[in-house]
């Protein structure tokens, strides 16, 4: 067995807030071995990103780190900051999530890579730029693009630039934090395989921090599962995936679309005052009395797997282990009396640019389809194929170049002013990023009440009751009503966005990648919520996603889109 290059022992990461001390990591112990890829998985907010940053002491000075982090004999927590600056990137590289936020928008990609060589290896400008060009080629970007700025790259390309930065100094260990978050399925796999290929070629090790269990299962040698700041399971990847040893791992697996998309209620607990006993007990369907009082230890079982559960070594089955998926057949099926609520005929949306506007980008190119009442039409295709533009053009958020959109037998293509405004309550959109439609200065109550006031949907005296009804419909607790968006999790934000949309009693909703930024358990909750709302209110959906499994689970019919055209239905 290869020796450990990184050993973390009993790591505690905590910081003070107005609500108390947040224990982001508690008693975390693990090792990454030479040439190994260790996947660290868990929901957003479980403490895995904090763990990755703690290894390189990238957390703010107010954060308290206790325990031991040793990399090839060097005690990282004891290194003076000056040496630490040399250590980062050279010994352990890191790829942080969200490249557009990490990269400097006013420096070209090549310059940002070249700066690393100049700082760490003292290279001259020309030599550093040449090395930067080589690094770009290595990650699949032409060196001719080294003078391009971050905004000139697509999401996948930006991620490649991050790979080049993370591996520029050929570190022995790479920490990759959510390297594929938000990318479409094809790009995700390409990027993941690129990183793993380069890491393996250098015989380096990698800590792959991700919420994507399937990705970790495919790429990692071993998997560590984190919940509420603690490691709950560590084992060989294929064993953890095929036979999870902890109920939380099992629930995570069954929340995947391909495994039945079974939602688990509740969320990660507060890390200020986590539940007594086992931290997973409020959500665990296997819990018994002792789980509420006894805090389980992370113990090694006979098969060499580490599991933190009082049932470890015994027979157990979660509610989600049942074989039947939540939804075995479409909730909706067309009958002869069914009418098309939405009819799109030969719709086009072109963008013109260049000298005399001669260059044409055909974002949507002659698309026709229908959506029945109460039906979900899934729209699937790669990033950039025109799905979102189509959704927005159908809703008249974008002006169509030509073609017709008939809603409830009315041609809405020419609607303007008040007729367009009244349409806004009947046709709605749920965005990929809920933060983009929520005012950061508006509390949840006002965010939900705002469209009711704007469209005069109810009397002011009825507003309070209606807001509470909507909050209940999206399964949010009333105590969140007076919180700001920044105080909510990604899943809670998306529920608030859905409550706003529901308030307008829409008949048709474009759901544009509503769960692509969420982790599997939250995704399962939101998709189940949308399905239930559809059954209850008879809403029709155009459901846009790049994830085929999600589309198959949600949709009655599926339309496939490529380069602005619908290329087939199923
Ligand atoms: S200790 Fe109890 S509550 Fe915790 S995971 Fe095991 S069975 Fe569930």
A few lines on this structure:
The protein is an alpha/beta fold. It contains 17 helices and 22 strands.
Written account of the structure:
The chain is of the alpha/beta class. The chain folds into two domains: about 5-80 and about 210-320, P-loop containing nucleotide triphosphate hydrolases (Rossmann fold, 3-Layer(aba) Sandwich); about 340-570, Rossmann fold, CATH 3.40.50.300. The chain contains 17 helices and 22 strands. It is globular, with a radius of gyration of 25 Å. It binds iron/sulfur cluster. Iron/sulfur cluster binds near residues 247, 278 and 291.
Strand and helix map with partners:
Elements: E1 4-17, E2 20-33, E3 37-41, H1 48-55, E4 64-71, E5 74-75, H2 81-90, E6 92-95, H3 99-102, H4 109-121, H5 125-138, H6 155-167, E7 173-177, H7 185-201, E8 205-210, H8 213-219, E9 222-227, E10 230-236, H9 237-242, H10 247-254, E11 299-300, E12 306-307, E13 340-353, E14 359-372, E15 376-380, H11 387-394, E16 402-407, E17 410-411, H12 417-426, E18 427-430, H13 444-454, H14 460-473, H15 490-502, E19 508-512, H16 520-537, E20 540-545, H17 548-554, E21 557-562, E22 565-569
Parallel strand pairs: 3-8, 3-9, 6-7, 7-8, 15-20, 15-21, 18-19, 19-20
Antiparallel strand pairs: 1-2, 1-4, 4-5, 9-10, 10-12, 11-12, 13-14, 13-16, 16-17, 21-22
Helix pairs in contact: 4-5, 5-6, 6-7, 13-14, 13-15, 14-15, 15-16
């Amino acid at each position: 067995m290869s020796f450990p290059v990184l050993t973390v022992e009993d790591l505690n990461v905590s910081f003070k807030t107005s609500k108390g001390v947040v224990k982001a990591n508690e008693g975390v112990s693990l090792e990454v071995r030479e040439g190994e890829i260790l996947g660290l998985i868990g929901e957003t907010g479980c403490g895995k990103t904090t763990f990755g940053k703690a290894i390189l002491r990238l957390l703010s000075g107010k954060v308290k780190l206790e325990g031991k982090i040793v990399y090839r004999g060097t005690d990282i927590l004891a290194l003076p900051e000056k040496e630490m600056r040399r250590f980062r990137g050279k010994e352990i590289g890191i790829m942080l999530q969200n490249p557009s936020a990490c990269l400097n928008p006013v420096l070209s990609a090549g310059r940002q890579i070249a700066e690393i060589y100049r700082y760490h290896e003292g290279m001259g400008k020309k030599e550093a730029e040449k090395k930067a060009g080589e690094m770009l080629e290595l990650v699949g970007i032409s060196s001719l693009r080294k003078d391009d700025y971050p905004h000139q790259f697509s999401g996948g390309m930006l991620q490649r630039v991050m790979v080049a930065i993370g591996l520029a100094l050929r570190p022995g260990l790479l920490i990759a934090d959510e390297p594929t978050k938000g990318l479409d399925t094809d790009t995700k796999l390409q990027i993941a395989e690129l990183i793993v290929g380069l890491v393996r070629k250098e015989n380096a090790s990698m800590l792959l921090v991700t919420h994507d269990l399937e990705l970790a299962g495919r790429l990692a040698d071993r998997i560590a599962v984190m919940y509420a700041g603690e490691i709950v399971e560590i084992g060989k990847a294929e064993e953890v995936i095929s036979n999870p040893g902890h109920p939380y791992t099992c629930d995570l697996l069954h929340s995947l679309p391909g495994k039945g998309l079974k939602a688990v209620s509740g969320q990660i607990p507060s890390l200020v005052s986590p539940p007594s006993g086992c931290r997973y007990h409020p959500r665990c369907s296997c819990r018994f009395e002792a789980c509420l009082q006894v805090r389980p230890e992370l113990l090694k079982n006979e098969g060499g797997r580490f599991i933190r559960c009082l049932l470890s070594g015994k027979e157990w089955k979660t509610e989600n282990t049942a074989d039947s998926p939540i939804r075995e057949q479409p909730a909706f099926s067309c009958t002869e009396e069914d009418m098309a609520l939405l009819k799109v005929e030969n719709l086009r949306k072109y963008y013109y640019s260049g000298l005399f506007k001669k260059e044409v980008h055909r974002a949507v190119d002659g698309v026709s389809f229908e959506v029945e009442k109460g039906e979900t039409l899934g729209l699937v295709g790669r990033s950039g194929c025109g799905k979102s533009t189509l959704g927005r053009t159908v809703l008249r958020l974008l002006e169509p170049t030509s073609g017709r959109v008939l809603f409830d037998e009315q041609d809405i293509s020419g609607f303007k002013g008040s007729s367009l405004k009244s349409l806004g309550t009947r046709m709605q959109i749920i965005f990929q990023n809920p933060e983009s439609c929520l005012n950061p200065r508006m509390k949840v109550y006002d965010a939900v009440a705002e469209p009711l006031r704007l469209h005069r949907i109810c009397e002011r005296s009825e507003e309070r009751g209606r807001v509470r009804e909507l909050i209940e419909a999206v399964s949010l607790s009333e105590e969140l009503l007076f919180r700001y968006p920044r105080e909510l999790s990604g899943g809670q934000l998306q529920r608030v966005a859905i409550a706003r949309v529901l308030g307008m009693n829409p008949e048709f909703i474009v759901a544009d990648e509503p769960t692509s930024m969420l982790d599997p358990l939250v995704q399962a909750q939101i998709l189940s919520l949308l399905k239930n709302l559809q059954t209850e209110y008879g809403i029709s959906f155009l459901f846009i996603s790049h994830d085929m499994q999600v589309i198959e689970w949600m949709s009655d019919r599926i339309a496939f889109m490529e380069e602005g055209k619908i290329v087939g239905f199923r």
